[in-house]
Amino acid sequence: MKDTIEICECELEVEAQLNKFIEITGKKPDYIEGHAINSKNFFQSLKNVATKYDIFYSDPMDKDWQKKYNVYVPKMFQLNENGVYDPQTYLESIEQDLLVHDTSILVFHPGFLDQYVIDNSSFTLIRIKELEFLCSSFLREWKRENNVEYIKFSEL
Length: 156
What we know:
- The chain is an all-alpha fold.
- It has helices at 7-25, 40-52, 63-69, 87-99, 115-120, 125-134, 137-145, and strands spanning 31-32, 56-57.
- Helix 2 (40-52) links the parallel strand 1 (31-32) and strand 2 (56-57).
- This is Chitooligosaccharide deacetylase.
């Protein structure tokens, strides 16, 4: 299938969004990544803008990126017939693989929902379930028992 994204146009859009982020927050983001769009040109555009602005580029689905930063990426969760999954069950299913690696990455999309998100996102109930899980006593205890710590991309 032909990649319909034009790199130059995409870079302009990424830069516009980056500049808006800087305008709102007063700082550059800690990293740039774009896992939701499956396009080589899109990823190249992100990488180009990240390099231009000296921002960490995250691409955990790329095997070369995983090797360069020595980051383990576990298998993705499987959605059930209702389009959701249980984050705790998922963590328990990948626990042994996570704990034998020095650095692993898990991606979550927690959040509260407003009407716009409900109308425009495929990740609705998942956001609520992940938010509850990430704030749970189970996860706090699991982290403590397994000596797990969170790090920033800048620490890779």
